[in-house]
Specification:
Elements: H1 23-53, H2 61-84, H3 90-116, H4 122-131, H5 140-153, H6 160-172
Helix pairs in contact: 1-2, 2-3, 4-5
Length: 178
């Protein structure tokens, strides 16, 4: 009697691993990252426009922050595409978030140095040229002073603790009335 052999083949179907994300935390993270990136992009793009209008050089920080913000928005778009395909993995989010955090931290440190650095800082120039020479009355100089004063206070918004400590020191020295 002849033996018959039956060959069995196994078909493996490789399905991508799907990770179930907590929806509320992911949506909150995407919302905050989108707002922060868009605001940073808008602010530094405005700074570039102002520098060009004044015919001044553009510091490397401004295009750096614009590029970092644009990369963050592209990364968020990439994440949204992966979420729609249900292929978003934690490693992608962790790696991309780390890279964006390093870029953000670099920009934050350089912005802090530019605002509060030892020589030629924005804060020092504001104290010397704007705060130290107030104008009053109805004149173009008064309007220019008010505009410069608001510009000088604008960059201090991300650093509320520094502003509060500085104001308390000035009150203690008698420069500002309580």
């Amino acid at each position: 009697m002849a033996r018959s052999t039956v060959a069995r083949s196994v078909i493996l179907i490789d399905r991508p691993h799907r990770y179930n994300w907590p929806e509320q935390q992911l949506n909150f993270w995407i919302f905050i990252m989108t707002i922060a990136s868009a605001v940073t992009l808008g602010i530094f793009a405005y700074f570039i426009t102002v520098q060009q209008q004044l015919k001044l050089g553009i510091p490397w920080l401004f295009p750096f922050q614009v590029c970092a913000s644009a990369l963050a928005l592209l990364f968020i778009g990439f994440i949204l595409v992966l979420i729609s395909q249900k292929q978003l993995l934690p490693g992608i989010v962790v790696l991309g978030s780390f890279i964006l955090f390093v870029l953000w931290l670099t920009g934050l440190v350089e912005t802090s140095i530019q605002l509060f650095g030892p020589t030629g800082s924005v804060n020092g120039n504001c104290n010397l040229y704007v705060t130290g020479m107030p104008f009053s009355g109805v004149s173009v100089e008064t309007l220019a002073y008010l505009e410069q004063k608001s510009i000088c206070k604008f960059p201090l918004a991300p650093f509320p603790r520094v502003c509060i400590v500085k104001r308390e020191r000035e009150i203690g020295r008698g420069r500002i009335a309580g």
